[in-house]
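The following record pairs a protein chain with its ligand, adenosine-5'-triphosphate.
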Amino acid sequence: MSSTSRAPSVRFEHLTKIYSGRSDHPTVAVQDVTLSITAGSLTVLVGSSGSGKTTLLRSVNRMVTPTSGRVLIDDHDVSELDAVKLRRTIGYVMQESGLLPHKRVIDNIAIVPRLNGATKASARERALELMTVVGLDQRLATRFPAELSGGQQQRVGVARALAANPRLMLMDEPFGAVDPIVRSDLQRELRQLQDQLGITILFVTHDIAEALALGDQIVVLAERGRIAQQGTGAELIAQPADEFVADFLGLGAGRDLHLQDSDGTQLVMDADGRPIGRLSGHRR
Ligand SMILES: Nc1ncnc2c1ncn2[C@@H]1O[C@H](COP(=O)(O)OP(=O)(O)OP(=O)(O)O)[C@@H](O)[C@H]1O
Ligand SMILES: [Mg+2]
């Protein structure tokens, strides 16, 4: 998973996670989930709150230990890999920005390269480069996280995850806290970045429009991580597997989504011919 190796595949095999819970009964967060993520794809896990998205994501970098089942990166069982090394080679953008409040922007971004032994000067140089990559003005480098807008903080989170040149990125609702315009900017930039880097990205959201705009593959999760459907956005819209997926896509509520080509971009239209989003460009 170093910068020179190719992007890995990820496979969940019969993964079950039961949180024992200190205050109440045990919670089955995900139950017997088997799922393959194609190497080099941007795969979106979409599902309602509590469906187990964060649990699945964190089982990849061993921040969650499964109750049973396993996660493979390429053919390696993650439970047999060194947890610290694993976390430093996988980019992780947390649901809440997760920035260190007492460190300046530049040092937040430089954390992992520093931990990996880069000199302060070279880690900072890389951090400045990455600020440009994610569309942050380098003049913000010396600010503290609290002095940034929500969208700027999220960009810092993405830059920090990219700093170790990961071949695999886990992104947990990274654009949740920003307004719709900034959000679609961030989505576009992430797509471009993914097209350039060709890394494997596992992206979590509960927003179906975001899933359609970003995903090469979309995985619709129901309760306890049950996989209701996996496919491209176009496949989901054309043939939702069941009522649950249809409802989730808004197809049940008379929205009757369909696709329309506009200068090579596939727009998702509702029954009244209003565009509600666009479909991710498919590269394979
Ligand atoms: N540390 C924990 N202890 C006990 N229960 C937990 C813990 N973390 C998650 N859960 C429970 O496991 C289930 C799945 O949680 P998870 O955070 O994976 O869902 P999610 O799909 O990411 O939800 P959201 O969209 O709200 O972020 C929920 O019922 C949740 O309450
Ligand atoms: Mg979550």
